[in-house]
């Protein structure tokens, strides 16, 4: 068994939260697609917290505005996405 | 204006007060009413107008204007599915549509910012009851274009009652958190304008940093939320936020679990703000009951007592009135805010009051020894999804028409669709496309077959074993 990378885990959170079929998630932004609305955002935050065993702060939840920004935020929790 | 409207001519002392705050700009009552009356000048009393609205100045101005004019708005949210809108237009043949347009359209009677007032050209082959003031949908956008018929008296009665029990004063300032086309969101707009208070108009969500900075900078004193809003507030650790202008928050649009209600009673007490749980339905204009903040903790899980001017009764299975505490029956409400009834199409718009001020809510409830009411269940098969009613039979019918053998069930905010032999297409995406529900809230469970009773009803008890 090959261990799944953090990047794959991170991508899967987006795919699952927004019920996407394709894996092209790197350009996603909050409210950039219909599925990433406030409900999708809640689902995404819950998946990230479960998968990376972290607890996101309020400021990080409301600053989490894109796939890219999220990579930066998770670093604060010692989660390196690669 | 010959007709009584909830938006009467403004009093001189209110004219120069702020009515709306939008992106830092303040709009006075005089400016709002001027804009409102200008748009509405194109319509006549009794004209049906489809307003495709969002939380913005233009939508509120159009709503206020047409209401003052005695025209009859049908409110639909901007994200409403086009199929549903077409269904509404076909069924009600509105004289006008007021909507946001990407470009200037030929034939627009009037433009207001990005919005246009468009004549539909429909032949008006129906009559409108002179008491009819407003038409609202009871659900997001599933199924039939059934609307609730609200009278001028309904709107005035409910608005005055809400202002009384919430103690809304001209110093209050609500910030929008719910769609304007949704009865609860609309009641916040109605009550604040009627009380000479103001509204911060924003389409931002709680998950947006801008929302919180807008709330702070514009010094909003209150907002409302459905159960899901409170899940989000919990996630955001609302109790730790510094929001000095906030005076109270309200909750309605579905049952908050007793645990979450107790948690927010404590959080709000800690923040020094009121937490007010309420209960209502579009069929009762908006509100039927409220739980005073001093009881929020002790009576967590309760929807409180009937609002001023209204009363509750419980009917047992035989129709007899239940007078003892803790016995469950159907909740019946009596009050001037009970709607005139439903409309299925334009030919129902001439109908008078069919309910006589009495509403059988379809909710099962009981009261405790102190007379506080608790919702215990529902008579009909529907879920509350983000505050909106979703009829499960309509979901099933919609999927069956597409050739999907299914039965839906689940809990509030969590729809489960059992599909026999596996889904023939992407069910969450399909439901999302038709209803606007978020696909992550739709769970599909594959089963071999749907066990059914002789009458064809799905037997969910047996499904539990087959399914998840």
Which helices and strands occur, and which strands form pairs?
The complex is a heterodimer of chains A (82) and B (468).
Chain A: H1 6-17, H2 38-52, H3 58-63, H4 67-75
Chain B: H1 12-15, E1 18-22, E2 25-28, H2 29-40, E3 48-53, H3 57-69, E4 72-77, H4 82-92, E5 96-100, E6 110-112, E7 115-119, E8 132-137, E9 147-151, H5 152-166, E10 173-175, H6 183-194, E11 198-200, H7 209-217, E12 222-225, H8 227-235, E13 248-251, H9 258-271, E14 274-280, E15 287-291, E16 305-306, E17 311-315, E18 329-334, E19 341-343, E20 358-367, E21 373-378, E22 382-385, E23 388-391, H10 392-401, E24 406-411, E25 414-420, H11 427-435, E26 442-447, H12 460-466
Parallel strand pairs in B: 1-11, 3-4, 3-5, 10-11, 12-13, 13-14, 25-26
Antiparallel strand pairs in B: 1-2, 5-7, 6-7, 8-9, 9-19, 14-15, 15-16, 17-18, 18-20, 20-21, 22-23, 24-25
Helix pairs in contact in B: 2-3, 5-6
